[in-house]
Write a structure and sequence with these properties.
The strands form seven sheets. A five-stranded mixed beta sheet has the order 9-15-14-11-12, with no helix packed on it. Strands 2, 17, 22 and 23 form a four-stranded mixed beta sheet that branches. It is mainly β. Helices cover 9% and strands 45% of the residues. It is globular, with a radius of gyration of 20 Å. The N and C termini lie far apart (42 Å).
Length: 269
């Protein structure tokens, strides 16, 4: 293979990678005329898998005031009617529409009773994530993925902010000894993202009429590893490592001033 051909193939590969790494970077805000709405429900199908828990082994007076001894890792929350909470719904192939209007509670992280709240965050690309700790103990917010920070929170109710310049997934964990703490941040390039509520319901409003692909994204809920090597302490520690996220896709046609229903069934397979 000639050097010119190798260079052309390499350039093509880099173009594909860049396109996938920064989707919807050309999104444009436009004036909307007769937009529609997509609404529906995400439900669980089949036997419910074993929900992983983790032993609370530090600061029980703060982390475990009710003496539960273990903590639900919150990776899969299914309601009594089968609705799946904390599922992210988004439009994949939308390039123009409303201005960024993601809800403020999804853009502010609190550390409360040794939990990250909310568990799923949505932050606009190039915006900031604001964070604080309500707990009177040392927490950290360690991020990897589309953003990399390791931020200590030694004081309560002190808010700090960090920019999220790149679209993508950011994993959160605590390096302060509270190994069960985990959350996910999606840094998003357009406003057509939402998260299901406790009953599994969702709504995407002000969608321009057209045909789209709607995606249901859910973080991995299986614990695939329990002990990892911590580079800060240079020793192996107990920390859950989770399976990869899953996605389900559907086509959807949105018409002017109409509400279209889209429902998803999630399962192990």
């Amino acid at each position: 293979m000639s050097q010119a051909v190798r260079f052309a193939l390499l350039s093509l590969c880099l173009l594909v990678v860049a396109k996938n790494a920064t989707p919807q970077s050309d999104y444009q805000v436009v004036s909307l005329s007769s937009p529609g709405t997509i609404a529906g429900m995400v439900k669980w199908s089949g036997p419910l898998p074993r929900i992983p828990t983790f032993t609370i082994n530090k600061d029980p007076e703060i982390c475990d005031p009710e003496s539960q001894k273990t903590r639900d890792l919150e990776r899969l929350i299914v309601g009594p009617q089968g609705g799946v909470a904390n599922t992210v719904l988004f439009l994949r192939n939308i390039s123009r529409g409303k201005a960024m209007d993601l809800p403020e509670p999804r853009r502010f992280l609190d550390q409360k009773q040794c939990r990250y709240e909310p568990h799923i965050l949505l932050v606009p690309q190039s915006a900031v994530l604001r964070m604080k700790s309500s707990d009177a103990t040392l927490h950290t917010v360690h991020m990897d993925g589309a953003a990399t920070y390791n931020l200590p929170f030694p004081f309560t109710n002190q808010t700090i902010s960090r920019p999220m310049p790149s679209a993508g997934l950011v994993n959160l964990r605590c390096n302060g000894g509270h190994a069960w703490m985990n959350a996910e941040v999606l840094v998003v390039p357009h406003p057509y993202y939402t998260v299901t509520d406790e009953s599994g319901r969702f709504k995407l409003k002000d969608v321009p009429p057209g045909e789209y692909e709607i995606v249901a994204w859910h973080e991995g809920w299986k614990v695939v590893q329990q002990a990892v090597f911590d580079v800060l302490t240079e020793r192996r520690i107990q920390r859950p490592v989770f399976s990869e996220p899953k996605m389900w896709e559907k086509k959807v046609a949105v018409t002017a001033n109409e509400k279209v229903a889209v429902n998803f069934l999630l399962s192990e397979n």
